[in-house]
């Protein structure tokens, strides 16, 4: 999946995503563990980065779903997903 990304992030751990407007689907969260992707290759780790968006819009725009799942937060078993329209803020 990473090979198909021109520019983006691989987010492994996100903090605070449940603090937005849960009913409306808006979220924002700090990236605890994430990697910068350029031309299909991971080029480094990101720091001081935040992502935000609307989960309902993101779910409509998923372009790829991974074949393997991963436990997240001790209660959710989910595959990686590729979402092209997530807002990113970084220093």
Automatic annotation (TrEMBL):
Coiled-coil region(s): none
UniProt signal peptide: none
Molecular-function GO term, any one: metallopeptidase activity
UniProt cross-references to InterPro entries, sorted A to Z: Metalloprtase-TldD/E_C, PmbA, TldD/PmbA_sf
GO cellular component: cytosol
Domain spans labelled Metalloprotease TldD/E C-terminal: 1-89
Gene Ontology biological-process entries: proteolysis
Protein name: Metalloprotease TldD/E C-terminal domain-containing protein
UniProt lineage: unclassified sequences, metagenomes, ecological metagenomes
């Amino acid at each position: 999946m990473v090979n198909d990304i021109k520019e983006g992030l691989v987010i492994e751990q996100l903090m605070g995503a449940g603090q937005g407007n849960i009913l409306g689907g808006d979220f924002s969260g700090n990236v605890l563990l994430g990697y910068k992707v350029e031309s299909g290759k991971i080029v480094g780790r990101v720091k001081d980065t935040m992502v935000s968006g609307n989960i309902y819009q993101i779910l409509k725009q998923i372009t790829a779903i991974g074949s393997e799942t991963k436990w997240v937060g001790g209660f959710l078993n989910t595959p990686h997903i590729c979402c092209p329209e997530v807002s990113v803020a970084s220093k």
